[in-house]
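Q: We require from you a single protein entry containing the residue sequence and its fold in token form, and nothing else.
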Amino acid sequence: MSEFVGSIVDVLWSPVMIYFCLGVGLLFSILTKFVQVRFLKDMVKLMFEGGSSKEGVSSFQALALSLSGRVGTGNIAGTATAIGFGGPGAVFWMWAIAFIGSASAFVESTLAQIYKEKRDGEYRGGPAYYIEKGIGWKWYAVLFSIATLIAMSILMPGIQSNSIALGLENAFGLSTTVTGIGLVVLLGVIILGGVKRIAGVASYVVPFMAIGYILLSLVIVGVNITQVPDVFSLIFSSAFGANSVFGGILGSAISWGVKRGIYSNEAGQGTGAHAAAAAEVSHPAKQGLVQAASVYIDTLLVCTATAFMILFTGSYNTVGPDDTVIASNASVEGVEAGPAYTQAAIEQVIPGFGAGFVAIALFFFAFTTIMAYYYMAETNIAYLMKGRSAKVGMVILKVVILAATFYGAVKEATLAWAMGDIGLGIMVWLNLIAILILAKPALAALKDYEQQKKQGLDPVYNSKKMGVKNAEFWEGDYKYDKNKENAS
């Protein structure tokens, strides 16, 4: 079974996939004239503009919802694994895919806004919606929707809950069964409240967990401040094969950096597009810019925090493709690449604090990710089914994701990451092909946003004026009623 799953992962995540992700991100960066740089100020400003309504959530809530999916075990375990198998140079390639991938995030999230619709009193949108409406390939939209539904409800939750359970067991001796039950109860209470409650919880928890984690990394960097030049030199020299120790694994550095970078920041995967569609904004490009910023927050801040804690304390081993040890540190010798590296790093600076802190960080990071998985799965249920069937489908979905969460907490996760890689790989392939075909409306929306800004206007979108078909939501001039802001 392991060999079969591994062979599928090898096909999905072949060098072709790596270059495809980099190529698409670079293409969109060029076509948008590097939107991720030119509109950096707007990205920050737009995060905190606007409000929520009965139908949609605020830009910040949508950002928090997408970040809750992006900031997960990949930021701790994934970053450590990338260093463990790709060396310090993998960190640079994580940065690179985040920078160019933010352009992909802009395109997919803008498309999600353009082709969103109101269903059962809530905004719904995402890849399945823009594939059907924009390209006209119903079969392809259904294929993506089913793949996402399986990945988000069955394959992926177990990775997150297993990390939580093992972290709490190692740090506090808490039974995995007790943790599993606790997760199911807490998750059940939140998802029963729908998207408004999920977004509300995310908007409070995500900033708290991210800021706390980054602050601790700054403490560790501060204690080892004299090593700043050496660490940056190590990252850059290893990234391009110039380092004598890590020069032989340049391919692994690129592969692991890009793969774990995409797994963490999800740019181009289509997941962030689901949350983007739920936002109450006057122009699709506004939420596209906010979602582009979320990639920066995830990788350039949170993943970098993990990488710096590990590299500044030297708490890692790096193993080559043939299992030969390339670099070894006695403090983590024999330790599996993952959260243990971060724990060891913290222990060096604050003895007795590492295991507990990482366990709590994993809980917040991973739990909010499961919340986001549910929302994405629910959005695709809403796409595939209507009326009474959708209501029944969502009840079944709740049972399935709660069961998958509990199962992942109490069972060994030997195949969990590999199964997650399969689910993610299928989604990335399907979505990247779709946004390549459908990029024109998103690029036109950016141009329209830019022109209105130059005229001193608050940009408003009209799909008829833009000549975009099947974007019924935007056919009239957008009018936001302040009286319904934050209405429930």
Q: What stands out?
A: The CA atoms of residues 245 and 326 lie 7 Å apart.
